[in-house]
Design a protein that fits this description.
- The termini are far apart.
- The chain is an alpha+beta fold and about 170 residues long.
- It folds into two domains: about 100 residues, K homology (KH) domain (GMP Synthetase, Chain A, domain 3); about 60 residues, 2-Layer Sandwich (Ribosomal Protein S8, Chain: A, domain 1), CATH 3.30.1370.
- It contains five helices and six strands.
- Helices cover about 55% and strands about 20% of the residues.
- A three-stranded mixed β-sheet has the order 1-2-3, with helices on both faces. It has a three-stranded antiparallel β-sheet with strand order 4-6-5.
Length: about 170
C-alpha cells in the first residue's frame, strides 16, 4: 500500500481492477464464441486502460478476414462493441465502458486523431481563431480533446449527434 492510501481506498482500487478484469474475461468468452460461429481466426488480448476494460482481436494471419468485423469506417466494430458491452451487462448487471479493437483499427484511428488534434491546436495557436473540425463519434472526439489538452489548449464539443463536432479554442 502506498503512503497516504487508506486500506479501503486500496481495496476499492483492487475491486475496480478485478471488476474490469472480469469484464474483459466475459467479453473475451463472448468474442471467442462469435469468432467460432463466423469461422474466423484471431487471438484475443485483454487489458485495462484508462479505467476501462480493453479487449482486442488480433489477427494471426493476413488480417483480411477480421476486416469484415471492422466494416466501413468501423461501423461493424462499433456494433460489435455494443453487443459485447450488452453481453458483459447481462453477466454482471453493471453497465460496461469496455473498448473493443479489431485488427488494430482503433489504435491506428487513435494515432490519426491525435495528430489531427495536435494540428488543429497548432492552427488555433497561430491564427488566434477557433478551429472547427468535422463531425465525429464520441470515441473520436475524446481522442481529439485529449490531444488538444496535451497541446495546452481547450476544446469543446458542439452540435447534436450524429453531427456533433470538436471546436479547438485559442489560448
Amino acid at each position: 500500500m502506498t503512503e497516504g492510501t487508506t486500506p479501503s481506498a486500496a481495496a476499492e482500487a483492487g475491486d475496480t481492477l478485478t471488476r474490469l478484469e472480469q469484464e474483459g474475461e466475459i467479453a473475451a468468452d463472448y468474442l471467442e464464441g462469435l469468432l467460432d460461429i463466423a469461422d474466423l481466426d484471431g487471438d484475443i488480448d485483454m487489458d485495462v486502460e484508462a479505467d476501462r476494460a480493453a479487449v482486442s482481436i488480433i489477427s494471426d494471419s493476413s488480417g483480411r478476414d477480421l476486416q469484415k468485423l471492422v466494416g466501413r469506417d468501423g461501423e461493424v466494430l462499433e456494433a460489435l462493441q455494443e453487443l459485447t458491452r450488452l453481453a458483459v451487462h447481462r453477466e454482471t448487471g453493471d453497465r460496461s465502458r469496455l473498448m473493443l479493437d479489431i485488427a488494430g483499427f482503433r489504435a491506428k484511428k487513435r494515432a490519426e486523431l491525435s495528430e489531427l488534434g495536435a494540428k488543429a491546436a497548432a492552427e488555433a495557436k497561430s491564427s488566434g481563431e477557433p478551429v472547427k473540425l468535422d463531425p465525429m463519434t464520441p470515441f473520436e472526439r475524446k481522442v481529439v480533446h485529449d490531444a488538444v489538452k496535451s497541446a495546452g489548449l481547450r476544446s469543446e464539443s458542439e452540435g447534436e449527434e450524429p453531427q456533433r463536432f470538436v471546436v479547438v479554442l485559442p489560448a
